[in-house]
């Protein structure tokens, strides 16, 4: 009896374990493996998606690289995870059909694969109405027969992380202007009815896409068209997108982003190399936009607003951003915008003016500490710390836009830039008064006595510096903030690093190598000096050197401002003065 009871209990125990195992499989989901590149049948991707239940994962066992070519789009109606083996697996529409459709109500995660060569009225590669997260996914070369969203059409919630949306196009018939005009070469985000939430993070890029002119109307949104939705960019790049007409001239609005009645938030991101007729980088037709810690570089507008163009009275809030080397055919190479509030930003070297100084700016204001290297922003640069004058030399890194750390591209400041430490600590905030504690790359702000203007915060090289400006005696490799005086009995050497202020030598020994002097360098009186491969931000003055003084070897200095020599000069140095296009070989001391 006792034995039979044990057997019965044991049977119930094993039965319960089996039920728990079955239940756990359903809770955590099954794994379905795709084993063939065929479009249908056992082992195909289409069959795997059709049989998947909520919570299931689909993976792949295929010889790579390979392509799955579809004859009709695949529709996903359940909440599944599709985990690819890498972007060498491509799912293709064969330039004739769309690739993936995500239905409303489905929560889908797709990673590590490529979506390519799709064709559909709404989203050549992907049409999403559900909640979709893409990670390490490339959406590329979806170019045929798409009117809204060459790569992706989104009316749901879409997150792109570590993704690339590249080489897609919307609209057809550019050469003959036949067919429909395209909107959203990379992505069309549709927010009518509360959908259209698009987020790009972690170095995601939308690049090399185009929207093309058709029989009627003009294309808009080379990268992204935001139609009453919400677009959020964090640590992302919008680069080299275009709007194309029959002669490939500048047509349409918003080479990078078109905002039509929605909300656009750009943070820690780069918008560069985009082109349109109006708004090379961003065009705001209506709605709101906020830009923080971002770089606009090399965007072109055939007409107005190389970096940003806004015809709507805002609000457009821009803080801690850099606008450099953008251009416009008529006005506002940097910004042409109404309803603008600008703070802690720098505009320089933009063609046809940094700002459009006309009625379009009538509702614009400054919150202070903005810098412009021309006069076009002066009419509204009236707050504390504003400066709009051609005498400003922003002293950007001559390498321009490049990788300086972080997940995007930035334009670095040189140590002697007037933008360095320009913003008082109390004003290191955005236009809403919120503290901004990092730059575009994630570098902490401030690094010095104040915050730097624009998207880039200069990090001084770690190293040793003198205890004070009057006691420069030793060998140093850091950056000293202030002025240096070298006098009799002192030997001051900087190998790298440099001095942010002025350097005056009245005696002793001064040596600089691969260093930067932010202000002027004045050598007056006796002593010895050796200034080599050194950038001097101000004047270089050598004067009152007595006969027989051991002044020599001042070679390879790159002087930004004036060369001034009085009385005797150092021995046989070749000093470059690019600001005045002169090179002077110095006469020997007699």
Which terms would index this structure?
single chain, 590 residues, mainly beta, 32-stranded parallel β-sheet, 5-stranded parallel β-sheet, 2 helices, disordered C terminus
Give a written overview of the molecule:
The chain has 590 residues and is mostly beta strands. The chain has a domain of 112 residues. Helices cover 6% and strands 37% of the residues. The protein contains two helices and 56 strands. The protein has a 32-stranded parallel sheet that branches. A hairpin with a 7-residue loop joins β39 and β40. It is elongated, with a radius of gyration of 31 Å. The N terminus and C terminus are likely disordered.
> Total number of β-strand segments?
56
Which ranges are low-confidence, i.e. pLDDT below 50, for 5 or more consecutive residues?
1-26, 547-553, 565-590
**Coarse morphology:** elongated
* Strand residue percentage: 35-45%
User: What structural class do helix, strand and pairing data support?
Assistant: mainly beta
First-residue to last-residue Cα separation: 123 Å
The total of helices stands at 2
State the helicity in percent bands.
under 10%
Major β-sheet, in short? 32 strands, parallel
What would you report as the Rg, rounded to the nearest angstrom?
31 Å
Mean pLDDT metric? 86
Brief summary of the model shown:
With 590 residues, the chain is mainly beta. Helices cover 6% and strands 37% of the residues.
Topology (SSEs and partners):
Elements: H1 2-28, E1 31-34, H2 45-51, E2 57-60, E3 66-69, E4 74-76, E5 81-83, E6 89-92, E7 100-102, E8 107-116, E9 126-128, E10 131-140, E11 152-154, E12 157-161, E13 164-166, E14 169-170, E15 187-190, E16 197-201, E17 205-207, E18 210-212, E19 224-227, E20 230-234, E21 237-239, E22 242-244, E23 257-267, E24 270-272, E25 275-278, E26 282-292, E27 295-297, E28 300-304, E29 308-310, E30 316-319, E31 322-324, E32 327-328, E33 335-337, E34 340-343, E35 346-348, E36 365-366, E37 371-372, E38 387-388, E39 396-402, E40 410-413, E41 474-476, E42 479-480, E43 484-486, E44 491-495, E45 498-499, E46 503-505, E47 509-513, E48 516-517, E49 521-524, E50 528-532, E51 535-536, E52 540-543, E53 558-559, E54 563-565, E55 574-577, E56 582-585
Parallel strand pairs: 1-2, 2-5, 3-6, 4-7, 5-8, 6-8, 7-9, 8-10, 9-11, 10-12, 10-13, 11-15, 12-16, 13-17, 14-18, 15-19, 16-20, 17-21, 18-22, 19-23, 20-23, 21-24, 23-26, 24-27, 25-28, 26-29, 26-30, 27-31, 28-32, 29-33, 30-34, 31-35, 34-36, 35-37, 37-38, 41-44, 42-45, 43-46, 44-47, 45-48, ...
Antiparallel strand pairs: 39-40, 55-56
């Amino acid at each position: 009896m006792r034995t039979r009871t044990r057997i019965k209990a044991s049977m119930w125990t094993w039965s319960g374990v089996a039920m728990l195992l079955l239940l756990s499989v359903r809770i955590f989901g099954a794994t379905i493996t795709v084993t063939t590149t065929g479009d249908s049948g056992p082992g195909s991707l289409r069959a795997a998606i059709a049989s998947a239940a909520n919570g299931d994962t689909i993976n792949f066992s295929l010889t790579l690289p390979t392509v799955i070519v579809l004859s009709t789009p695949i529709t996903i109606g359940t909440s599944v995870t599709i985990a690819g083996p890498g972007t060498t697996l491509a799912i293709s529409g064969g330039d004739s059909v769309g690739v993936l459709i995500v239905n409303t109500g489905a929560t889908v995660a797709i990673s590590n694969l490529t979506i390519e060569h799709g064709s559909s009225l709404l989203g050549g590669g992907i049409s999403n109405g559900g909640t979709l997260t893409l990670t390490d996914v490339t959406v590329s070369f979806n170019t045929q027969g798409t009117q809204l969203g060459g790569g992706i059409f989104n009316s749901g919630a879409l997150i792109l992380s570590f993704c690339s949306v590249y080489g897609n196009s919307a609209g057809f018939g550019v050469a003959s202007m036949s067919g429909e005009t395209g909107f959203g070469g990379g992505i069309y985000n549709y927010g009518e009815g509360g959908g259209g939430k698009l987020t790009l993070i972690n170095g995601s890029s939308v690049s090399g896409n185009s929207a093309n002119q058709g029989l009627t109307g003009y294309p808009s949104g080379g990268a992204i068209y935001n139609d009453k939705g919400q677009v959020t960019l964090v640590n992302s790049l919008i680069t080299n997108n275009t709007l194309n007409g029959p002669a490939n001239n500048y047509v349409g609005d918003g080479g990078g982003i078109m905002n039509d009645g929605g909300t656009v938030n750009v943070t820690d991101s780069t918008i560069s190399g985009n082109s349109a007729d109006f708004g090379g980088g961003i065009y705001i037709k209506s709605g709101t936009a906020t830009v923080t810690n971002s770089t606009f570089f090399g965007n072109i507008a055939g007409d107005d607003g190389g970096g940003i163009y806004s015809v709507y009275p805002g609000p457009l809030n821009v803080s801690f951003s850099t606008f450099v080397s953008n251009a416009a055919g008529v006005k506002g190479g940097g910004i042409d915008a109404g309803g603008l509030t600008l703070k802690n930003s720098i505009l320089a070297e933009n063609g046809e003016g940094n700002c459009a100084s006309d009625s379009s700016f009538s509702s614009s204001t400054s919150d202070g500490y903005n810098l412009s290297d021309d006069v076009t922003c002066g009419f509204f640069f009236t707050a504390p710390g504003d400066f709009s004058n051609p005498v400003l030399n922003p002293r950007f890194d001559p390498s321009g836009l490049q990788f300086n750390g972080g997940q995007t591209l930035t334009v670095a400041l040189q140590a002697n830039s007037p933008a360095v430490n320009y913003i008082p600590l109390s004003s290191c905030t955005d236009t809403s008064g919120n503290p901004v504690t990092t730059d575009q790359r994630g570098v902490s702000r401030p690094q010095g006595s104040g915050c730097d203007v624009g998207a880039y915060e200069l990090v001084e090289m770690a190293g040793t510096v003198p205890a004070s400006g009057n006691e420069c005696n030793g060998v140093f490799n850091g950056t000293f903030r202030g002025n240096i005086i070298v006098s009799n009995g002192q030997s001051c050497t900087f190998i790298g690093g440099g001095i942010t202020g002025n350097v005056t030598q009245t005696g002793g020994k001064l040596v600089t190598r691969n260093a930067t002097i932010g202000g002027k360098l004045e050598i007056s009186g006796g002593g010895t000096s050796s200034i080599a491969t050194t950038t001097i931000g101000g004047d270089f003055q050598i004067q009152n050197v007595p006969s027989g003084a051991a002044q020599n070897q001042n070679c390879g200095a790159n002087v930004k401002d004036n060369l001034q020599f009085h009385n005797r000069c150092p021995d046989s140095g070749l000093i470059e003065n690019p600001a005045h296009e002169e090179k002077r070989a110095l006469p020997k001391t007699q």
